[in-house]
Amino acid sequence: MNYQKICSDLLKDLPSRTVNVIERRFGLKSGKRETLEAIGESYGITRERVRQIENEGFAKIRPALARDGKLLKHFQNTLISFGGVKKEDELLEFLGGKNGKNQVFFLLSNLKDFERVGEDNDCYACWAVKKASLNNAKNVIKLTIGRLSKEKKVLDFKDLLKGQKVNKETFVSYINISKNIGKNPEGKYGLSKWIEINPKGIKNKAYLVLKKESKPIHFTQVASMISKLPFSGNGKVHTATVHNELIKDERFVLVGRGLYALKEWGYEPGIVRDIIIKTIKDSSGPLSKEQILNKVSKQRFVKENTITHNLQNKAYFLRNSQGKYTIKES
User: Fold this and answer.
1) What is the CATH number of the domain that holds 230?
2) What are phi and psi of 117, to 5 degrees?
3) How many structural domains compose the chain?
4) Which of 192, 85, 75, 197 is nearest to 139 (CA)?
5) Looking at CB atoms within 10 Å, which of 164, 203, 295, 322 has the fewest?
6) Is the pLDDT of residue 232 over 80?
7) d(C-alpha 32, C-alpha 50), whole Å
């Protein structure tokens, strides 16, 4: 389809000012769309008068455009191949390529057979071939959001597609309309607000690193691995910045010299002494040194001497006649 020629043919018999207004409104020549106000100022007329001129031109264009069965069929078949609905920027790119997007937008806008749905808080602007297709898309989006909310984890495309009553191309077209569903650079899908999909800031990226590694990591390693994450905007990451973020965020627990773990893995916050106190409190009675060493070593990556040294602090711990430790009551 030579969209440039189609547009030129539609405009050729219109008054020159009408042609200029429409070309500027849709960016048919310059590639940049202009507002009613900007065009009005250049002519010294109101934005409403510009709108009237534009509509007068549309009234003459639309009957001729409606008779172009080949173009109409082309647009219909394209939208139907995507389930009848397609995100606006994706549709314009698919049909018009790099240089013909504005022409396609102009032609679609003047064909009554297609419905444009404007952008809102939940969805991007899109085009639909009929109302039923739009309703189908909304239902698929609702079900997908519900499933992700229930499972609370990112899914690959194959898993996400399971149970859907539409084909792959249609499903992708539908969920791409939603602002609430996103895909990360690793091809995993989830809710856009999840940090696995859209991590914001160093602390959330550090969380992703630890989550992926599933083991405690030194903060210098965390900094190095953040810079290698496939998300945009990952320039040089300073280790001091990472360390400061890990210290301040309650999701992270310092479990050794520079080693951090996630609290959700069962690690308790606090210094070694705090861990010993909690270990003894959680037991049914006094604990031997070996029992304490075993339990605390699962919480902190420190030398046994460090734990033993803390146990010798009589301000907090007492050793009974059986060699077992209790907490000194204040």
Assistant:
1) 1.10.10
2) -110, 120
3) 4
4) 85
5) 322
6) no
7) 17
- The Cα–Cα gap between 63 and 234 comes to 52
For the residues of 136-188, what is the DSSP string, one character each? HHHHHHHHHHHHHHHH-S-EEHHHHHTT-SS-HHHHHHHHTTBSSEEE-TTSE
**Strands 317-319 and 126-128, bridge-based pairing:** unpaired
Domain holding 14, by residue range, is 3-67
Of 50, 67, 84, the one marking the end of a domain is 67
Tokens 């699962």 locate to 298
Residues 241, 148, single domain; the answer is no
Among 118, 126, 117, 123, residue whose Cα is nearest residue 91: 126
For 167-198, the pLDDT digits (tens) are 999 999 999 999 999 999 889 999 999 999 99
Return the closest-CA partner of residue 292 out of 255, 253, 319, 259.
319
pLDDT in tens, 89-143: 999 999 999 889 999 999 999 999 999 999 999 999 999 998 889 999 999 999 9
Residues 297, 276 share a domain: yes
